[in-house]
Write a structure and sequence with these properties.
27 helices, Multidrug efflux transporter AcrB transmembrane fold, 4 domains, alpha+beta, 4-stranded antiparallel beta sheet, 3-stranded antiparallel beta sheet
Length: about 850
């Protein structure tokens, strides 16, 4: 079917080379416009109830994930210089164009906080620190006010020991605002080392963004310019101690998202070149020629460049998950070219003086069908991601398939065109010729594989029993698999983000939030003492859970007001006893000027209220525990009331994201296996062939997932993507193996000899391919980005297991089932 294409390539090789190089250069030119998106919420489907309700909560209460700046001092933060720094940073951050600052409390700190004051006749709110106190007495009065109102401020703005305080800034929507504000705030914090004279607003006059609020033309690459911005996310950590002992920390979900994306990109810029060098070195060891190194590497790199270039042309961003796309294409894209080069050298070895065009024609006629088959089956594996509910996964699946097709297209055009132009040559020619005079195999790899095949045939029962026992053991292990995803696991413990996040979780209530919204259709429903006491009970119960900090709701404001109206007597830090008293307190609040903090916990009609639960880790296993407890409490205590309860916030979104991940990926893997089986059955026109193609990769996936379950390794993005690579590459191994076995079986109806001949030829190429990819991915073990480290060892293990599964399982099946052999002989005939 594709022979006309192969003939065109071989007849016009130089034209093909020029066209391929021109396309590659064009695609490479697009890469400078590559943009990325790190907002965690994009992983939830558009219109998902969690996103819709989250946006509703943002509109109602103004709660958003915030950039958090912590100022810590071992001698205490209640000193004039530290307080001046807090006020200065607060004002500068509030003036940044990417920061929401419609209300004073939108940038929350000691300098913007308010507290209740009043007596039994009136009540109002006053600024906690309108100006930095001039003397020690004023500082001590400030400190007393903070700790007298501990429910509102301690753990929320000031640490319990008084050695740290925080500034929280809400950001406007969009990746541009996140990146822009991140680098501006870093610039502000770094300028504090020089006395705080920089405001973070300076910018080159000819830049797309000139400091004017509302300007939308800021470019993601512009942080590399000067003008008060931090030049790099890798600058000296901001937590370096200042002269007075202050240390500045930068954290929060937007910071984690931005830094994760930047670190992934930066790490790939370093790791991919090293990975390519290692793969090139291994190719040189096996093929011993420059063309054996350069041509497969060009195919692999070309596939990556074409894929990313197409992504830019179609207007898609690079999601955090998509940073692994080049890595995936390295594993999958190298296969076709390795098979072509190995087959080419096998054809050159008997007679290196033949015309290049004749040799390449034979290679393409022989390998054309298996190459298109492996492309289709591998694509079927990744197309299963279209069933994922998370949009970035679907987009990743589409571009992974596109990259696979590009790698195939380059393998069947560029590579044969280049080999046609070059004179035939094989590395280690004399050594291989001598080996063939002594053995039936040309090298040691083939001899080892033949010996293994003979051993499997001679000990069929033992191998079969061993595989069945191992499979049952791994089935039990796979039942122990659990999902536990964490953005913070993307960072090394000594990274700036991890250090900052750990400090905030130690000193404050937490950095990720579960928002519990209690609402009713009736105005004034939330003035009910019974409902408010139920909310208070929920707060008490949830605060007993591990990793949960001090919660905040309307209950805390009412209790604080009650204490204030009783001259600060701690005994009155309780909810009023009667409905009448409750109504009076709320009436006083409405008459005396509603404090802005109250807007974040209840609406004007007293129909909706917000309970915020801070959590000190983002591990979804912990988040699930908290959410399950909240749901159980709601089901039991709010069942017969007029209110209903919904969840929102980053903690809820993270939990839903993980839940969708396991559900969609489990389905995707099952669908991909079924799709590969159907496709292989159609292409080979044999149910038996379809079964043998899918069997090794199924066993490999089972072995890895079972091992992960027994070792307690959770399922996350890295392990899921590694499984996708395993399916893609494992299917390639099986398809090439079965194509070669069928050809050998057509020559000799002795299944054992056909299998041994398959091991001598394609078996060797499978080992070479697995070795190359394993060696390349082992480089990722030295990455400074933990997800890439995990990806490295999972893919490396998968390559070894997939290779062994294809060779051992297929040798066992083709040697130990006479009925199967007869079916295969019939198919071959």
């Amino acid at each position: 079917m594709l022979k006309p294409l192969y003939r065109l390539v071989i007849n016009y090789p130089r034209l093909i080379l020029v066209v391929v190089l021109a396309i590659t250069v064009f695609m490479a030119m697009q890469l400078k416009s590559l943009r990325w998106e790190t907002d965690a919420r994009v992983y939830l489907p558009k219109g998902h109830p969690a996103i819709t309700y989250d946006e509703k909560v943002i509109e109602l209460f103004g709660v958003k994930d915030s950039v958090i700046i912590a100022v810590a001092n071992d001698k205490g933060i209640f000193n004039r210089e530290t307080l001046q720094r807090v006020k200065r940073i607060t004002e500068k951050v509030a003036n940044l164009p990417g920061v929401i600052a419609q209300r004073t409390i939108d940038v929350a700190s000691l300098s913007t906080a308010e507290l209740f004051v009043g007596d039994d006749e009136s009540m109002g709110a006053q600024a906690l620190m309108p100006e930095v106190p001039d003397d020690e007495a004023g500082i001590q009065r400030l400190k007393k006010m903070v700790y007298d109102n501990a429910d509102l401020f301690v753990g929320n703005l000031v640490s319990k020991d008084g050695k740290a305080t925080m500034i929280r800034a809400k950001l406007k929507e969009g990746a541009t605002n996140r990146y822009q504000t991140y680098f501006q705030i870093k610039g502000i914090l770094q300028a504090e080392k020089a006395g705080g004279k920089q405001d973070g607003q300076g910018w080159n006059a000819d830049a797309d963004w000139n400091g004017a609020a509302g300007q939308k033309q800021w470019k993601q690459g512009d942080w590399k310019k000067q003008g008060g911005w931090s030049n790099s996310w890798k600058d000296t950590p901001v937590y370096t101690e200042l002269k007075n002992g202050d240390r500045l920390y930068l954290a929060g979900r937007p910071v984690i998202e931005v830094t994760s994306g930047l670190q992934a990109m930066d790490d790939m810029k370093l790791m991919i070149p090293v990975l390519i060098l290692v793969i090139g070195f291994v190719l040189l060891l096996f093929f011993r020629t420059l063309r054996g190194v350069a041509l497969p590497l060009f195919v692999m790199l070309g596939g990556i460049i074409w894929t990313l270039g197409t992504m830019v042309l179609l207007g898609y961003p690079l999601y955090t998950i998509s940073t692994m796309l080049p890595v995936i294409l390295v594993a999958v894209g190298i296969g076709d070219s390795v098979h072509l080069m190995s087959h080419y050298y096998d054809r050159v070895l008997p007679d290196p003086h033949r015309k290049s065009s004749e040799i390449v024609t034979e290679v393409m006629d022989n390998l054309g069908p298996p190459l298109i088959t492996t492309t289709l089956t591998t694509a079927a594996g990744f197309l299963s991601l279209l069933f994922a509910e998370m949009p970035p996964f679907r987009i990743f699946g589409v571009f992974a398939v596109l990259g696979i097709v590009y790698c195939w297209l380059l393998s069947v055009t560029f590579l044969p065109a280049a080999l046609t132009v070059l004179r035939p040559k094989v590395g280690g020619y004399l050594k291989k010729r001598r080996s063939m005079r002594l053995h039936a195999e040309q090298d040691g790899i083939s001899r080892v594989l033949v010996a293994l095949g003979e051993n499997v045939h001679a000990n069929r029962s033992r191998y079969l029993i061993g595989l069945v026992a191992l499979s049952l053991l791994m089935v039990a292990g796979s039942m122990k698999l659990h999902v536990d995803s964490s953005w913070m696991s993307d960072f090394r413990n000594d990274s700036e983000v991890a250090v900052s996040n750990n400090l905030l979780n130690r000193q404050f209530n937490g950095t990720i939030f579960l928002n519990v919204v209690i609402e009713s259709d009736q105005k004034g429903a939330l003035k009910s003492p019974a409902i408010l006491r139920t909310i208070e009970t929920l707060q008490t119960e949830v605060e007993k859970l591990p990793y949960v900090g001090k919660t905040l709701s309307i209950v805390d404001f009412i209790k604080s007001a009650n204490k204030t109206l009783h001259e600060g007597d701690p005994a009155y830090k309780i909810l009023p006893a009667s409905s009448k008293e409750m109504a009076e307190y709320l009436y006083l609040l409405s008459l005396s000027g509603r404090p802005e903090q109250l807007d974040q916990v209840i609406d004007y009609d007293y129909r909706r209220t917000l309970l915020t639960i801070p959590i000190q880790t983002d591990h979804t296993r912990i988040l699930k525990n908290v959410i399950d407890h909240v749901n159980a409490f709601v089901k039991e205590h709010f069942r017969n009331t007029s209110v209903h309860v919904n969840l929102a916030g980053s903690a809820n979104n993270s939990y839903i994201w993980a839940d969708l991940l396991i559900g969609s990926q489990t389905s995707a893997i099952m669908v991909s296996k079924l799709g590969i089986f159907i496709l292989a059955t159609i292409l080979f026109m044999s149910l038996m062939y379809g079964f043998f193609v899918v069997l090794p990769v199924t066993l490999a996936t089972l072995l890895i997932s079972g091992g992960a379950g027994w070792l307690g390794i959770p399922l996350d993005v890295s392990t899921t993507l590694a499984a996708g690579v395993a399916i893609g590459v494992g299917v390639d191994y099986a398809v090439h193996y079965m194509f070669r076995f069928r050809d050998c079986l057509a020559v000799s109806e002795d299944a054992l000899q056909a299998n041994l001949q398959t091991l001598r030829t394609v078996g060797k190429t499978i080992v070479i391919n697995a070795t190359i990819v394993t060696a390349g991915f082992s480089v990722l073990l030295f990455s400074r980005f933990p997800p890439h480290v995990k990806m490295g060892y999972f893919v490396s293990i998968y390559m070894v297991v997939s290779c062994l599964a294809a060779i051992i399982v297929l040798s066992l099946c083709l040697s130990s089932r006479p009925a199967a052999k007869e079916a295969l002989v019939a198919d071959a005939g």
